[in-house]
Each structure stands twice: as C-alpha cells, then as structure tokens.
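Good morning,

Attaching, inline, the backbone tokens for the sequence recovery test we're adding to the shared suite. The designed sequence is right after.
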C-alpha cells in the first residue's frame, strides 16, 4: 500500500484502524455524519463523539500535536491543516476543502470502524462452520481451516447450469442432481462441489454425508484450479466418493475428464472429445460442453 501511495494523493475508505494508521487526514463518519477529523494519534486519544476510536484506557486530554500536516486520507500531498478556510458537503461520500493556497482537493470520509474481529480459538469445527452465514462467497472446511472461494465468473456459472440441466434430464428417479451442495467428508471436513449426483432425492437437510454422493463435479477457475486438482481431489478420494468430474472452461471449447475411484485413487475413465463427454456411470449420459449460440438481434 505504501508503494502505491508514494508520490500521489490517495483516498481510502476503511473499517480497520490499521488500514489508515498512517493517513495524513482522517474523517470519521458516524451514523451518517462527520464525527471527528484528525490524524490517527489524535483520534485514538481524543475523547470525541465517536467512541469506536477510543481504546478503554484513552486519556481525557490528547497528547498528540495538532500541527502535523494533513492532506487527503492516506495521501502524500502535504497541506498544512491551518490552511483550510472552509468546507462544505457535496454528497454522502466526499467533501470539498478550499485552501488558502488556492488548491482544491476532495477528502474521502472514513466510516467509523467496526470492532476488530476476535481471533478464533483453535480449529473450526463442523458445527461452527454450519453456523456461518451462507454464501456466496462460499467457505469450505478443511481439517479445521476455513477456505474461501470467490464467486465464479458468468462463463463458469453458465456452464454449471448447462451441465446440471443435462444430468438432471438423464438421471434415473433414484438420483438427484444438486448444484453447490454442502457435503460432509468426515471429521472437520466439508466441501461444496459445483454440482453433485446424490442418491437421496428430496433430501432437505443442511449437509449431506459423502456416502450418499455418487459423483462430484468441479469447474476450474484461475483462482481454484490447483486447489480443485490437488486438495479437493484428495479429500473426495479419502471420503470414498465413486466419481469425480473435472471441467476446464479455460479454452474456447471446454474440456472435461471423468475419474473413477479405484483402490483409493482416481483413475481416468472418460475424456471429452470435440466438446462432448460420454458417460456410462453412474448412469448413461451425453454431456455437451459447448454453449448454445446467442440469439441474433432484431
């Protein structure tokens, strides 16, 4: 951050105190109004109108100097604070300050910070993971650690819907195709595949044990490609899920490989050709990986 700010005026909107500790000017927004302005050392010691800035042992009298230079929040353009003649609001996000040196700059208001999050005591349990707010973005549980995945691009989501529709149309009545379902792998492990085939149609719980999952599907993205092919693949194998379908949409024509679990490891069973994947397990289906042509205008 310091390297990005060097030689330029920078506006920051933050909730964490540490993010704006070195700002030349901080404007605290509390309940829709500016409660205080100043530098970090002034605000943290001043018994002002925004108690979220004051630590429990804050003194009643500020010991910080009020003569330090101030400029844009977290900026590098130095303007003496005594130079400000007046300020007026232009909107809810910015105010304009006119200075004696005939320089105008816009200063971002900084929301009053939320309390610093508490550090979680030890590994996360499955019960604690289930109590987290539901995504997106989605958070998976791997041996007590939380792994957050970003929201997929529209191309990936479109491909997931297309595959789900084809699998759903071909699935026998004893199976159901579920998109982005919670799967418990045993212990403090829970993953959310892009789609899966389960043998519990109509299941209405929050998380399904891996023994009821026949196939999991993962659509790779730049940020999850390695995680999907290594960590998740190994966890699915340890949980005993019979089939793993890996889809790669990175090329113009997406590709897919289906693996079968044999002797505790996944081995390739089928590979797509020219955008078409033919499967005979867990049930026969032909999966078209190509996208339909968009409708022509007019």
């Amino acid at each position: 951050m310091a390297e990005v700010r060097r030689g330029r005026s920078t506006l920051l909107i933050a909730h964490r105190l540490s993010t704006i500790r070195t700002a030349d000017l901080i404007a605290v927004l509390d309940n829709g109004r500016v409660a205080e302005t100043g530098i970090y050392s002034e605000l943290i010691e001043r018994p002002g109108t925004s108690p979220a800035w004051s630590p429990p042992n804050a003194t009643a009298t500020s010991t910080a100097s009020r003569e330090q230079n101030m400029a844009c929040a977290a900026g590098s353009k130095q303007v003496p604070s005594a130079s400000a003649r007046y300020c007026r609001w232009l909107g809810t996000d910015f105010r304009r300050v006119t200075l004696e040196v005939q320089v105008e700059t816009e200063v971002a208001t900084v929301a009053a910070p939320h309390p610093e999050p508490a550090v979680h005591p030890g590994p996360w349990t499955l019960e604690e993971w289930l109590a987290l707010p539901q995504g997106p973005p989605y958070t998976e549980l791997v041996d007590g650690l939380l792994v957050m995945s970003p929201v997929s691009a529209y191309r990936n989501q479109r491909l997931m819907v297309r595959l789900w529709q084809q699998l759903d149309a071909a699935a026998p009545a004893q199976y159901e195709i579920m998109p982005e379902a919670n799967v418990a792998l045993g212990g403090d492990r829970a993953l959310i595949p892009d789609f899966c085939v389960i043998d519990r149609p109509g299941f209405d719980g929050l998380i399904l044990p891996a023994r009821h999952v026949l196939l999991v599907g993962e659509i790779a993205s730049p940020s999850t490609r390695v995680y999907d092919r290594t960590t998740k693949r190994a966890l699915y194998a340890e949980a005993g899920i019979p089939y793993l379908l890996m889809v790669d949409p990175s090329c113009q024509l997406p590709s897919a490989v289906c693996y079968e679990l044999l002797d505790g490891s996944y081995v390739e069973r089928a590979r797509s050709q020219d955008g078409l994947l033919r499967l005979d397990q867990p049930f026969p289906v032909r999966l078209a990986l190509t996208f339909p042509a968009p409708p022509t205008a007019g």
